[in-house]
């Protein structure tokens, strides 16, 4: 799974490894991009130096010294692996970016998941997407304004990419638990206190997850001890039948909208 915290950890670790490094090759293994497009992309990227790596919603953005941005969309089931020396020959490898002997390979990308953009093009591209939950401009007032228009359950709204980016099924449940609101609660039922708890919970759960390594299942490199550290800290996600750490109740599996959700129905009220 790749939600915001996992991508943020990728961003930090990829920046640490490759900022200042020169791209010596980019190999696109996957189908869905024609040969001419691959050659074009390679021609513009090879020889450039990565200045830094940024995360924008579900994307990693490599800032290149030719002023362009190499955008890599990371789908929910995609992952990355960094290595040195022989590159993976795995059939599932989608894209490999080489920096001399070192490389990062992305798995599970589709045709449109990697592209080179101008700064302006990137801004245009990001415009229609949901705001980043950790964006400083997302104040409580703005958060409520965005969400209050929706007539769905809490979980459905948190996972709505047009509304807010980077929250998937895992963190939606964890945020709802931290906010003491059931994931199947209707948004219209939330009062001011519940909105504030939800807003605070969203920031604190995501930041906490980032600081503990997120919950990614696959290490980014050999010896990576950070990735996945947050999985053991889940309060409700996939903890059905276990005791709630807050009230001693039992974590249950529910349906929220058309999705499964995990919650403690004893201490997660619909609203106050
Ligand atoms: Zn509980």
Percent of residues in beta strands: 15-25%
Give the overall silhouette.
Answer: globular
Largest beta sheet, briefly? Answer: 4 strands, antiparallel
Number of DSSP strands? 10
Decide which structural class fits the backbone. alpha+beta
Task: Provide the number of structural domains.
Answer: 2
Low-confidence stretches: none
Helix and strand pattern = HEHEEEEEEEHHHHHEE
- Spatial strand arrangement across the major sheet: 1-6-7-5
Count, helices? 7
Q: Into which percent range does the helicity of residues fall? A: 25-40%
Q: According to CATH, what is the class of the largest domain? A: Mainly Alpha
CATH topology of the largest domain: Helicase, Ruva Protein, domain 3
Regarding quaternary structure, what we see is single chain
Residue-averaged pLDDT, rounded?
94
CATH architecture of the largest domain: Orthogonal Bundle
Q: Compounds present?
A: zinc ion
CA-CA gap between termini: 32 Å
Radius of gyration: 20 Å
Topology, element by element:
Layout: H1 4-18, E1 25-28, H2 35-45, E2 50-56, E3 59-64, E4 69-73, E5 79-84, E6 93-99, E7 102-107, E8 114-117, H3 119-127, H4 140-148, H5 154-158, H6 169-178, H7 192-211, E9 251-256, E10 259-264
Antiparallel strand pairs: 1-6, 2-3, 3-4, 4-8, 5-7, 6-7, 9-10
Zinc ion (ZN) binds at residues 244, 246-247, 249, 264, 266-267.
